[in-house]
Design goal:
Elements (H helix, E strand, L loop, with lengths): L2 H20 L67 H6 L22 E3 L4 E2 L29
Antiparallel strand pairs: 1-2
Length: about 160
């Protein structure tokens, strides 16, 4: 090996070994600054008790949709209606009413499941891929917002 190449390799090795020593010390992020909760990642907090208000079915105003194609929110309590299973779905008792699809919705009237939820609207046969209502529809909760949003509906 020639002397210039050997010196270059020796100088490269010395520089490579000395770089970590010259690096900025401790660039770690403190535990309390990680995530949305701003507490240590090692804390085990008590779960937040969420109040799904809303009262009895038929007594509340319809919730405003966030965007045009958003599924409607559930504005009443569902405490005694969950878990929803294929063989136990109390939502269907009120909302699977194809006769109401052409009616004007008034206060106290259940919002009928839309045509897209049926295999046969005339017979009132619900498409079984839609039996789990809470997969798309969620109850309204009285909680503080974790992160402020700047989302605006399209006009």
């Amino acid at each position: 090996m020639s002397k210039p190449v050997g010196k270059f390799l020796l100088l490269s090795a010395v520089l490579a070994l000395s770089l970590p020593a010259n690096a900025v010390q401790d660039q770690s992020i403190p535990d309390d600054d990680l995530g949305l909760s701003k507490t240590s990642v090692y804390d085990v907090p008590d779960p937040i008790i969420v109040n799904y208000g809303g009262g009895d079915p038929g007594t509340n105003k319809r919730a405003e949709k966030s965007y045009h194609t958003a599924p409607p929110m559930i504005t009443h309590s569902i405490v005694d209606m969950v878990p929803i299973r294929q063989d136990f779905n109390l939502c269907k008792d009120c909302h699977v009413q194809p006769d109401l699809l052409k009616e004007k919705i008034t206060v106290g009237m259940p919002i009928p499941a839309p045509v897209s939820h049926y295999t046969n609207v005339k017979k009132g046969e619900l498409y079984m891929g839609r039996w789990n209502c809470t997969q798309c529809h969620a109850p309204q909760a009285n909680v503080n917002v974790l992160v402020q949003s700047t989302f605006k509906k399209a006009k």
